[in-house]
């Protein structure tokens, strides 16, 4: 199993290219199931989660080939071979549940195992089920699988979401493109990845309006055609690397970064004493003074502060001047990085969904363990600021969401290497 070793104390300087968004790509890929014609994605990230989705789509009958070292994914699903998403694949990644809507729309039936993925809370599927039921699907849970059936096909309707779930919005959006009649998704998620999915579906011939707002309207069509779509920039990878100079000093330019993807996060960086400047190529970041300042952070659905950047922000606040309060409102169990950061000398007190972080002068290198995707990268960032050596084990979590982390950070001056134990 691989580990990553970081030796802290080097200033970072240079450019970091930001990949296409994992979370967008994982929603875009299942869209191939909606059409007999080819769907090609460019600017795809090279990650193990993308390989898992490839495996899943192939098991359903899609032909998937990757080109340019994985940056281009060409898919085509002329015929469906199966409508069952097996536990063996789904357990590796929750986003596997995004085949449910497309399968129901195209084949009028689907069997999808209940998902796995990061251990960051219960993460049920009830909102997905309610949303697809509103389009006429009958769904029951048997033997750990959701069995879904749409007799005579899905029909459009009003779909009010109890919570603006990203995955449920994506599933119902894809399903509605081929439903009979019109659908209105109310309290839809507004994340940039939803906007990206809607754009791709529209390029395939879907009729969609209102993406990026809380009300998305879809007029069902008989069939979708071929399209080529460029995956939007990964705002979470972007935010992660934007934090790096706050740990080390120096200046980093994140290529492909855009403020509109990450506004709430940038406001917090400014309050913490970190300058962000828009350049032609992306976003340039540097710390004002020697130490960041404490800030309070509450995670919220987009356009609020993203939960997927909470662990990285907490790591940064561990060395800030003053006391910060973090509130996690999206996932109930998402402070598992806190005890690992404490092993590095951080002062963090977690009470339920709240964490209080009192900044210390210096973190100290230690052996720590990655517990989920974003937690693992927060430990690497902390290692950049720590005295001595930090060894992060179980980095398979990291490889699900960050391509070539050691190369990207190494290229701007970090002392970081991957070792295989
Ligand atoms: C997506 C992202 C994930 C991110 C999250 C929130 C992908 C592949 N993953 O996950 O990285 O952290 O959005 O921004 O895009 N919930 C229910 N019932 C449901 C569905 C969700 O209770 O049927 C709850 C979840 O348990 C969680 C909250 O709603 O507490 C948010 O979930 P959701 O927005 O659906 O996130 P995902 O789509 O799973």
UniProtKB/TrEMBL annotation:
<dbReference type="GO" id="GO:0051301">
    <property type="term" value="P:cell division"/>
</dbReference>
<keyword id="KW-0963">Cytoplasm</keyword>
<keyword id="KW-0573">Peptidoglycan synthesis</keyword>
<keyword id="KW-0133">Cell shape</keyword>
<dbReference type="GO" id="GO:0071555">
    <property type="term" value="P:cell wall organization"/>
</dbReference>
<dbReference type="InterPro" id="IPR013792">
    <property type="entry name" value="RNA3'P_cycl/enolpyr_Trfase_a/b"/>
</dbReference>
<dbReference type="InterPro" id="IPR005750">
    <property type="entry name" value="UDP_GlcNAc_COvinyl_MurA"/>
</dbReference>
<dbReference type="InterPro" id="IPR036968">
    <property type="entry name" value="Enolpyruvate_Tfrase_sf"/>
</dbReference>
<feature type="binding site">
    <location>
        <position position="330"/>
    </location>
    <ligand>
        <name>UDP-N-acetyl-alpha-D-glucosamine</name>
    </ligand>
</feature>
<keyword id="KW-0131">Cell cycle</keyword>
<feature type="binding site">
    <location>
        <position position="94"/>
    </location>
    <ligand>
        <name>UDP-N-acetyl-alpha-D-glucosamine</name>
    </ligand>
</feature>
<dbReference type="InterPro" id="IPR050068">
    <property type="entry name" value="MurA_subfamily"/>
</dbReference>
<feature type="active site" description="Proton donor">
    <location>
        <position position="118"/>
    </location>
</feature>
<feature type="modified residue" description="2-(S-cysteinyl)pyruvic acid O-phosphothioketal">
    <location>
        <position position="118"/>
    </location>
</feature>
<keyword id="KW-0961">Cell wall biogenesis/degradation</keyword>
<protein>
    <recommendedName>
        <fullName>UDP-N-acetylglucosamine 1-carboxyvinyltransferase</fullName>
        <ecNumber>2.5.1.7</ecNumber>
    </recommendedName>
</protein>
<feature type="binding site">
    <location>
        <begin position="22"/>
        <end position="23"/>
    </location>
    <ligand>
        <name>phosphoenolpyruvate</name>
    </ligand>
</feature>
<dbReference type="GO" id="GO:0008360">
    <property type="term" value="P:regulation of cell shape"/>
</dbReference>
<dbReference type="GO" id="GO:0009252">
    <property type="term" value="P:peptidoglycan biosynthetic process"/>
</dbReference>
<feature type="binding site">
    <location>
        <position position="308"/>
    </location>
    <ligand>
        <name>UDP-N-acetyl-alpha-D-glucosamine</name>
    </ligand>
</feature>
<comment type="pathway">
    <text>Cell wall biogenesis; peptidoglycan biosynthesis.</text>
</comment>
<dbReference type="Pfam" id="PF00275">
    <property type="entry name" value="EPSP_synthase"/>
</dbReference>
<keyword id="KW-0132">Cell division</keyword>
<dbReference type="GO" id="GO:0005737">
    <property type="term" value="C:cytoplasm"/>
</dbReference>
<keyword id="KW-0808">Transferase</keyword>
<dbReference type="GO" id="GO:0019277">
    <property type="term" value="P:UDP-N-acetylgalactosamine biosynthetic process"/>
</dbReference>
<keyword id="KW-0670">Pyruvate</keyword>
<comment type="similarity">
    <text>Belongs to the EPSP synthase family. MurA subfamily.</text>
</comment>
<dbReference type="InterPro" id="IPR001986">
    <property type="entry name" value="Enolpyruvate_Tfrase_dom"/>
</dbReference>
<feature type="domain" description="Enolpyruvate transferase">
    <location>
        <begin position="6"/>
        <end position="409"/>
    </location>
</feature>
<comment type="function">
    <text>Cell wall formation. Adds enolpyruvyl to UDP-N-acetylglucosamine.</text>
</comment>
<dbReference type="GO" id="GO:0008760">
    <property type="term" value="F:UDP-N-acetylglucosamine 1-carboxyvinyltransferase activity"/>
</dbReference>
């Amino acid at each position: 199993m691989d580990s990553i070793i970081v030796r802290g104390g080097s200033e970072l300087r240079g450019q970091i290219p930001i990949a296409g968004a994992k979370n967008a790509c994982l929603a875009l890929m299942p869209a191939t199931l909606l059409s007999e014609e080819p769907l090609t994605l460019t600017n795809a990230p090279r990650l193990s989660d993308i390989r898992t989705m490839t495996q899943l789509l192939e098991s359903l009958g899609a032909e998937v080939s990757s080109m340019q070292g994985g940056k281009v994914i060409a898919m085509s699903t002329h015929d469906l071979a199966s409508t069952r998403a097996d536990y063996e694949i789904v357990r590796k990644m929750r986003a596997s549940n995004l085949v449910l809507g497309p399968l129901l729309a195209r084949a009028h039936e689907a069997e999808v195992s209940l998902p796995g993925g990061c251990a960051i809370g219960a993460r049920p599927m009830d909102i997905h089920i309610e949303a697809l039921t509103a389009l006429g699907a009958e769904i029951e849970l048997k033997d750990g699988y959701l069995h879904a059936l749409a007799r005579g096909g899905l029909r459009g309707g009003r779909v009010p979401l109890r919570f603006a779930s990203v995955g449920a919005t994506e599933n119902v959006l894809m399903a509605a493109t081929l439903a009979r009649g019109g659908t209105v998704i109310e309290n839809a998620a507004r994340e940039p990845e939803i906007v990206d999915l809607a754009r791709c579906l529209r390029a395939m011939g879907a009729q969609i309006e209102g993406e990026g707002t809380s009300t998305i309207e879809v007029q069902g069509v008989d069939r979708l055609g071929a399209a080529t779509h460029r995956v939007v920039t990964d705002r979470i990878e972007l935010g992660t690397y934007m934090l790096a100079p706050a740990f080390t000093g120096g200046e980093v330019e994140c290529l492909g970064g855009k403020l509109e993807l990450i506004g709430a996060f940038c406001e917090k960086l400014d309050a913490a004493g970190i300058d962000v400047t828009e350049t032609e190529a992306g976003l340039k970041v540097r710390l004002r003074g020697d130490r960041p300042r404490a800030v309070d952070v509450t995670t919220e659905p987009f356009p609020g502060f993203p939960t997927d950047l909470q662990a990285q922000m907490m790591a940064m606040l561990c060395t800030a001047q003053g006391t910060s309060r973090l509130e996690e409102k999206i996932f109930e169990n998402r402070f598992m990085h806190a005890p690992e950061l404490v092993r590095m000398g951080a002062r963090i007190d977690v009470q339920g969904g709240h964490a209080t972080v009192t900044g210390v002068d210096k973190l100290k290198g230690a052996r720590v363990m990655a517990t989920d995707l974003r937690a693992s990268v927060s430990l690497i960032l902390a290692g950049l600021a720590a005295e001595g050596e930090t060894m992060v084990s179980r980095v398979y979590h990291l490889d699900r969401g960050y391509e070539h982390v050691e190369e990207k950070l190494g290229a701007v001056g970090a002392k970081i290497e991957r070792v295989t134990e």
